[in-house]
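Exam review. A common question shows you a sequence with its structure tokens and asks you to describe the fold in words. Practice with the pair below. Do the first one on your own.
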Amino acid sequence: MALLERHDTGAVAHLRMSAPERLNALSDEMLAALKAQIDALGEDRTIRAVVISGEGKAFCAGHDLKQMQQGRQTEDGGKAYFAALFARCTEVMTGLQRLPQPVIAQVHGIATAAGCQLVASCDLAVAAEGTRFGVNGVNIGLFCSTPMVALTRNIPRKQAFEMLSTGRFVEAEEARQMGLINRVVPGAQLADATAELAETVAGKLGAAVKIGKEAFYAQAQMGIDEAYAHAGQVMVENMLWRDTEEGIAAFLEKRSPDWTQ
């Protein structure tokens, strides 16, 4: 069985982390598999939404601690290995946001440390009731500094710092209220609810969602005046497309649009 399984349903790609015995930890091998799929999806214009899930009793428990301890067995005590590991993890997390397709986390069980970072790095997230989220590295003496980057761009600062500094876990409904996830559903409905959201996104004009996702993350890093100027330019470009003209005409004429993209 592959470490990361992919199957496509129409325009939706489903990526399932398949290392349940390790709680789908982000091992060197798992990060490499995720990076390979991200690279492939970035070039795949038939896919309009991506779902990431985990097999077994957990979504993802973060970095593989046993593997990290093995990385210490070098002359520099693991310094170069750890630097490379966190750089590769960052490449995966930022790669998800750079994909043209919206990425949805389908979360159950636990999402801890870099696993919580993975949820925060996805564009959308649906969680099963009873799911627990934590950036709990501080409990073992390791502050979750890289997960912090994604977390603080999802939830308010004081709530983020409390999670980071205490190692406290939050339940799914609290995570939704904070803004870490979009929806909480019964566990039996998780796959269907996530698929429904993915299919809704995939049903939109792909080029419009792509340009919108790029603009969404770009403007979030800008001051308000620069953000409005950038967003205005994006809307002008979008409005000039043939498919956008067709979409507006179809709406006014109360019919389905005849899109080419």
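Now try the second one, then compare your answer with the model answer below.
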Amino acid sequence: MEKNVAHIALFAALIAALGLIPKVTLAFGVPITAQSLGVMLCGTILGSKRGALAVLLFLLLVAIGLPLLSGGRGGLGLFVSPSAGFLIGWPIAAFVTGLIVEKWRSAPLALVASLASIIGGILVMYVFGIVGMSITLEKSLVEATGLVTAFILGDFLKAIIAGMLTSAMAKARPSSVLSRSEPADAV
């Protein structure tokens, strides 16, 4: 139990640390940050449940006002900003990413983790992000989808990095990739 809590806290801190990499804010108010890589890694390394819990812990800290998002942002106001859909989608993205890595064991881990990051960390996250931007920016879903295209290349690069890092960790220290080393229901 204590190990799980430590892993969850460590990965929440990883997401916060990735916020130190300078953000690039786009004209419509949603920044490009490295923190979505942290969300992907939560899923690929910790697995579905622990990964989602790490992201939820991070978002709780942001909601109470800690300036942990890229650019030193924090507070409840972020959950009604153009970024709100992405933030709300982060725990679900980590869960889906982790679930895929836990269940798909027949292919090389680098490939599985990269594809899981694309499905969970990009597609799932974009669904929430597009809906959130549509609501907060008062745009149609088609217009909001067009805005999201600015993120695609960077997010695919992050998904590949997540796959490579997860595979490297598994080779260096197999027990560190909890999504593969323990039963999926062990939390």
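Model answer, second protein: The beta strands are 24-25, 31-32. The first strand starts at residue 24 and ends at 25. Full marks require stating both points clearly.
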